[in-house]
Design goal:
- By secondary structure, this protein is an alpha/beta fold.
- It folds into 2 domains: 137 residues; 209 residues, no CATH class.
- Helix content is 20%, strand content 34%.
- The protein contains 5 helices and 35 strands.
- A hairpin with a 4-residue loop joins strand 5 and strand 6.
- It is globular, with a radius of gyration of 33 Å.
Length: 476
């Protein structure tokens, strides 16, 4: 009996020990499972927070890109909402205010400004403007956007365990007609002494026997034996890669007509619309270095074209260069008078629903971020009465006509004044539907203005898309 009792007690003790052991195991498993569930919950929350932070950064980039579509040099005009405080060493400006400093700046206070979105997240921006240098990266606008979960109580990025911040770097490269030294809806030929330092495009054949320091694009073929420098390449249907690898579609000159319509509308809504009920033969426009210009209605001398004989003009009216950059007239517009050159201060595009005539020198006011666009529905013509030696800066478009002087019979219907002038120096870009020539001048110098790679004339048409994403990546 005692043995049986002993055995029962021993079995009972072992059972109790087993219960205690199993209970301990279950407790450990319960703690581990609880920790696992907590960890998974935190991980899920962190993932959601991280994704939302990334989307907030993307929202900052999209918002800034939208501002660039309205104003190509927004970065020189404003410190955007959510952008860190800038300084150029002299001028310091905070988010949401006009920028009055220089072309380069730093962010000495780090991410001291945030734009709060409606979903409880926010973004910060830091911007680097283009330098106008030769490489695409230096021509691009850099946007560094950081998104985070927003702590509205403490007005800062949140500090909760599932908070995350994500940063995206984006480089946007402007795309405009003005990015090219020459766009022609005709064959183009350059001789052995020619040097082109901007991109060249032709809907026909490009024949180049000189030196090219930027790409040559042809919808037919690139001929000749040019010396290619600065990494310049040839693109045509016969090259590998082909022209379609860099320009998705041929440049459509008919699309430039839309730009004329846009400028006309803009001139009537915040710009300057040069108009009289009794239409003059032309308008004479002279730009002044103080940010104004004068405009006067002109009449022909006899039956001579206004580019052949200087017209008679009335009393001028003074205007401020419009903030939206649009000046338009249905009549021919003459830039300069026989006695007055132009010094442009501002970003402005002058458009004529007829011809644009160059009557005197055109320069940019010193120390300003200025650019002049000239758009003619028909011809871009240099007047016979222009200075013997002419120097002019502009981005130009002859939408349906030629880019020429009065020696080219296509510009005024007759050839007039060939070889009568000295040197013409043009700095800028040219787009011409019918080609052209400048044989009125014994010497012609064509320079591309590298600032046009980023400092675009307002309302100028784009090639392909207004901006190309050169780079987008997440950075730490």
């Amino acid at each position: 009996m005692s043995r049986v009792v002993c055995m029962l007690r021993r079995d009972s003790g072992q059972a109790m020990m087993m219960v205690v052991f199993v209970t301990s195991i279950l407790s450990v498993l319960a703690v581990g499972l609880s920790a696992l569930v907590t960890s998974e919950t935190q991980s899920t929350g962190h993932t959601v927070s991280s994704d939302e932070a990334y989307q907030a950064a993307e929202a900052g980039i999209d918002t800034y890109a939208a501002k660039l579509l309205d104003d190509h040099i927004y970065f020189l005009h404003y410190v955007a909402p959510g952008e860190s405080t800038r300084t150029d060493g002299t001028v310091t400006v905070g988010a949401g205010n006009a920028w009055t400093g220089g072309i380069t700046w730093t962010y000495p206070n780090g991410q001291d400004a945030w734009h709060v979105l409606g979903n409880g997240y926010a973004y910060n921006l830091e911007i680097t403007g283009p330098s106008g240098s030769a490489t695409p990266i230096q021509q691009a606008i850099q946007i560094v956007a950081t998104g985070c979960r927003w702590d509205s109580v403490n007005a800062r990025c949140g500090t909760a365990a599932n908070n995350a911040s994500r940063t995206i770097q984006t480089l946007l490269l402007p795309s405009s007609v003005a990015n090219f030294q020459m766009i022609a809806n005709a064959n183009i030929t350059y001789g052995t002494t020619a040097t082109t330092n901007g991109k060249i495009y032709s809907s026909g054949t490009v024949t180049h026997n000189g030196t090219a320091s930027a790409n040559l694009y042809s919808e037919v073929n690139v001929l000749g034996t040019p010396t290619m420098t600065n990494g310049a390449l040839k693109y045509s249907p016969n090259t590998n890669p082909t022209i379609r690898s860099v320009l998705k579609n041929p440049i459509d000159f008919s699309s430039f007509l839309t730009s004329i319509t846009d400028i006309q509308r803009a001139s009537q809504n915040g710009g300057v619309y040069l108009h009289q009920s009794s239409a003059p033969a032309a308008w004479e426009v002279v730009f002044n270095s103080n940010g104004t210009f004068t405009a006067a209605a002109c009449s022909k001398v006899g039956s001579a074209d206004v580019s052949q004989v200087a017209p008679t003009c009335g009393a001028p009216t003074t205007y401020n260069v419009p903030t939206n950059g649009a000046i338009y007239s249905n009549e021919t517009v003459i830039i300069g008078s026989p006695s007055s050159a132009s010094s442009v201060n501002g970003r402005v595009t002058v458009t004529s629903n007829n011809n644009v005539v160059i009557g005197n020198n055109i320069s940019y006011a010193a120390g300003t971020f200025s650019v002049l666009g000239l758009v003619a529905l028909n011809n871009m013509t240099v007047a016979y009465w222009a200075p013997y030696n002419l120097s002019w800066n502009a981005a130009t478009i002859a939408t349906t006509g030629v880019w020429a002087d009065t020696c080219d019979s296509r510009s005024i219907g007759t050839s007039y004044g060939c070889g009568t002038h000295g040197t013409m120096t043009f700095t800028g870009s040219t787009a011409t539907n019918g080609g052209g020539s400048m044989s009125m001048f014994g010497t012609r110098v064509y320079n591309y203005d590298p600032n046009l790679l980023w400092l675009l004339p307002p309302w100028f048409p784009s090639v392909d898309k207004p901006y190309t994403v050169l780079l987008q990546r997440e950075i730490t």
